[in-house]
Amino acid sequence: MTFKPTKYNLMCCATGRRFEDEGWLLADPSCQCPSLVRAEYEMKQFNPRSELDGFYRYADWLPIRRTLENSCAPVTYKSEALAAHLGLENLYITFSGYWPEKGARMETASFKETEAYSVCARLPENNDRIMVVASAGNTARAFAKVCSDNKIPVLISIPEDNINALWFSKPLNGCVKIIASPKGSDYCDAIALADTVCRSPRFMAEGGAKNIARRDGMGTTLLSAVETIGRIPDAYFQAIGSGTGTIAVWENNLRLIEDGRYGTHKMRLYPSQNDPFTIMYDSWKQHSRNLVPMTPEEARKAAAEIDAKVLSNRKPPYPLIGGLFDAMEDATGDIYKVSNSELQEWKHRFREIEGIDIHNAAAVAVASLAMAVNEGAVKKDEVIMLNITGGGEERAKAEHEMTYAKPHLVLDPSLPEETIVSAVEKLF
Fold first, then answer.
1. Amino acid 187: pLDDT
2. What is the SS3 assignment for the chain?
3. Tally of CB atoms within 10 A around 148
4. Is the pLDDT of residue 153 over 90?
5. pLDDT tens digits along 261-279
6. Mean pLDDT, to the nearest integer, of 335-341?
7. How far apart are CA 15 and CA 33, in angstroms?
8. Which of 211, 254, 299, 371 is surrounded by the most beta carbons within 10 Å?
């Protein structure tokens, strides 16, 4: 079957200017301030496509040129056990991970697969530049897996301290190369390394939150929930490192309102961070669009202390026009912070109650939901969506023989640009 892409234009969130996507635009070239661009799809109704496999059933609201092999969509189910434990009547869990009994078969056990399957499908098949992806862990694993399965050249940049996140059920194809910032460095150091590499014309930045394909891929979590529930939820819970996933569901909420068949309300947003890495929590509590100051040294120290290592982006898309601050302002809600001990308590409880292991970041979201219930921020009869962004890793590892990838190069981001670029170019 020949895949027919959906038509869309781009809209600058700062100015409202609409223009065509020339292929890999990450911003409006005519905009004078930092702003996200958003995809506006010709298809205005939410229309899951049953003829397409896995994740691509949501292709009408994805900026993609093709479909790729081995994808899986998020799975949403109505919770009974955790809902009863928390005293909630309408708790829906959107699970991205490995849980075959629920129909969840993401081999990397993370919703970062939704980003990778969307971003990589946005690439033209004749693309001759190498995509560069910086990650704290889960995103690296997802892009490495998707690119390996579909033979798409990619360069992964990751902190060496997080290299154990690169586990796979089979060895990676040689099209995937991995570089790492040294031990003691953090996610922003990996980003800096990737940025340096992208100054070479042979490489192109994946784009992170600025890439519409990444956001709209992550936004399929809400589409999964709405397809199951039949309406827009009242409240949404997710742990955040960059806030991109929360921005993504807010954007899809706006599209669903335009459809009109699933409600005309905006669900309240309740993202959460792992204390003491709380740059967005602290900024929101000051009601500041600007991020509170955080030095690289403070960030590395806080990142080392938190159990949910992936929630450690010190330069998130919070202040950008169309970013998390604007999403929170528009939809209302609050940001929570969760300690390591609270995280571990709810990680254990979730496994006991719902019957599957979850990632530390997902446990942060569960803990924040419990906080919201205790303080009365959500009512017991409201429709609540809990985004479990990763789970079933222990199950996946038990059922498959795992292999661990190692970095091809460890490079200090402070090295001269020509040294870094020359070393990396030799990998391909």
1. 85
2. CCCCCCCEEEEECCCCCEECCCCCCCCCCCCCCCECEEEEECCCCCCCCCCCCHHHHHHHHCCCCCCCCCCCCCEEEECCHHHHHHCCCEEEEEECCEEHHHCEECCCCECHHHHHHHHHHHCCCCCCCEEEEECCCHHHHHHHHHHHHHCCCEEEEEEHHHHHHCEECCCCCCCEEEEEECCCCCHHHHHHHHHHHCCCCCEEECCHHHCHHHHHHHCHHHHHHHHHHCCCCCEEEEECCCCHHHHHHHHHHHHHHHHCCCCCCCCEEEEEEECCCCHHHHHHHCCCCCCCCCCHHHHHHHHHHCCCCCCCCCCCCCCCECCHHHHHHHHCECCEEECHHHHHHHHHHHHHHHCCCECHHHHHHHHHHHHHHHCCCCCCCCEEEEEECEECHHHHHHHCCCEECCCCEECCCCCCHHHHHHHHHCCC
3. 19
4. yes
5. 999 999 999 999 999 999 9
6. 98
7. 9
8. 211
Which of the four pLDDT bands, split at 50, 70 and 90, describes residue 124? confident
Quick one: tokens of 8?
A: 């869309």
Average pLDDT over residues 3-21: 95
CA 129 – CA 24 distance, rounded (Å): 11
- 75-107+214-396 to CATH, choices 3.40.50.1100, 3.40.50.300, 3.40.50.11440, 3.90.1300.10: 3.40.50.1100
